[in-house]
Write a structure and sequence with these properties.
The chain has 8 helices and 7 strands. By secondary structure, the chain is of the alpha/beta class. It is globular and about 55 Å long.
C-alpha cells in the first residue's frame, strides 16, 4: 500500500525481472501483486510477514534468496508512528515503533547484504528515514528517536561499504517531511513546508537511489532546518522552531490512520529485484 506500492510500480515499469513484496496484510498484498502483474512482465512475488519479527524476516529472506537470489535494489520502507507525549506511550507502543522503524531495516538489510556483496554487481539500498530524525518534535519522541537511529545507521553503512571496498553497493538515505499517505493524517507541515505528494517523493527517491546519491532531503526546508539547528544556540533555535517555523506545533492535530486500517500497524517493506 502507499509508497511501498509506488516503489514497486516504478520497478515494474522500468523493467524489473522480479519484484518481491513484503507486507503483513495478506489481502492487500495479493491485491497489490495482481495490480503489478498487469503493469509489465515482472515476476511479482508476495510474501506475508510482519517485518518487526526477526524470525519471520530471516525465514522469508532465506526463501527470497533461494527463489530469486540477492536483490539488486532493496527498499526499506515500512514505518509506523505513535503521536502522543512520551509518558502516554505504553511499552508496546515503544517496542512497536522501534522494531518496525529501526530494527526491521537493519535485520532486513543484514539478511540480504552478504549476497549483494558476494555477487559483485551494482546494487542499491534505500532506507526511508524522516525529517523528524534531524529535529526534535513534541508528541513524536519515540518516532523521532527511531528515525534518528535510521539516519545514523544508514549513513554509517554507506561509509562502511565504501571503506571495505564494496563500492558496487550504494546506500541512499531518504529524509522527507510529512507526506500525504494518511500515516500522518492531521499533522501540519512547518512554515513553507506543505505536505508532499507520495508520487513526487518516490520519483525523487528512485532517481537518487539509482544514481547512488547518499542523501535526499525533501522539501528544501528540511536541509535548511537542519543547518539552522546546528548553527543556532538551543534557546534561539527553540524560538525559531516553535514560534517561526511552527515545527513544535506540527503534531498538535495529529490523528493518523483510522484504527480499522489493517495496514496501519506495519505497512510494507518492498524489496525490488531489478533483473532487466
Amino acid at each position: 500500500m502507499g509508497m511501498g506500492l509506488l516503489y514497486a510500480e516504478r520497478a515494474v515499469r522500468e523493467g524489473a525481472g522480479a519484484v518481491v513484496l513484503w507486507d503483513r496484510n495478506a489481502e492487500a498484498l495479493q491485491d497489490a501483486a495482481q495490480r503489478l502483474r498487469g503493469l509489465g512482465s515482472a515476476d511479482v512475488l508476495p510474501y506475508t510477514l510482519d517485518v518487526s519479527s526477526t524470525a519471520q524476516v530471516a525465514e522469508k529472506a532465506e526463501a527470497v534468496l533461494a527463489e530469486t537470489g540477492a536483490p539488486d535494489v532493496l527498499i526499506n520502507n515500512a514505518g509506523i508512528v505513535r503521536g502522543k507525549y512520551f509518558w502516554e506511550h505504553t511499552g508496546t507502543d515503544i517496542d512497536a515503533v522501534m522494531d518496525v522503524n529501526t530494527l526491521a531495516p537493519m535485520h532486513i538489510t543484514r539478511a540480504f547484504l552478504p549476497g549483494m556483496i558476494d555477487r559483485r554487481t551494482p546494487a542499491r539500498i534505500l532506507n526511508v528515514a524522516s525529517a523528524s530524525g534531524t529535529l526534535s518534535v513534541p508528541k513524536m519522541s519515540v518516532y523521532t528517536a527511531s528515525k534518528w537511529a535510521v539516519i545514523g545507521w544508514s549513513d554509517s553503512l554507506r561509509l562502511e561499504l565504501e571503506e571495505a571496498g564494496q563500492g558496487h553497493i550504494q546506500v541512499t538515505t531518504l529524509i522527507p517531511s510529512y507526506i500525504k499517505t494518511g500515516m500522518f493524517e492531521g499533522a501540519r507541515g512547518p512554515l513553507m513546508t506543505p505536505l508532499m505528494e507520495p508520487e513526487y517523493v518516490v520519483d525523487r527517491a528512485w532517481k537518487a537511489l539509482l544514481a547512488g546519491k547518499a542523501r535526499v532531503q525533501l522539501p528544501w526546508t528540511v536541509p535548511l532546518g537542519s543547518a539552522l539547528r546546528g548553527l543556532l544556540p538551543q534557546p534561539a533555535w527553540d524560538v525559531v522552531a516553535g514560534r517561526v517555523f511552527k515545527v513544535y506545533q506540527s503534531m498538535d492535530h495529529f490523528t493518523g490512520r483510522p484504527p480499522a486500517d489493517p495496514g496501519a500497524a506495519a505497512s510494507s517493506a518492498a524489496g525490488t529485484g531489478n533483473r532487466a
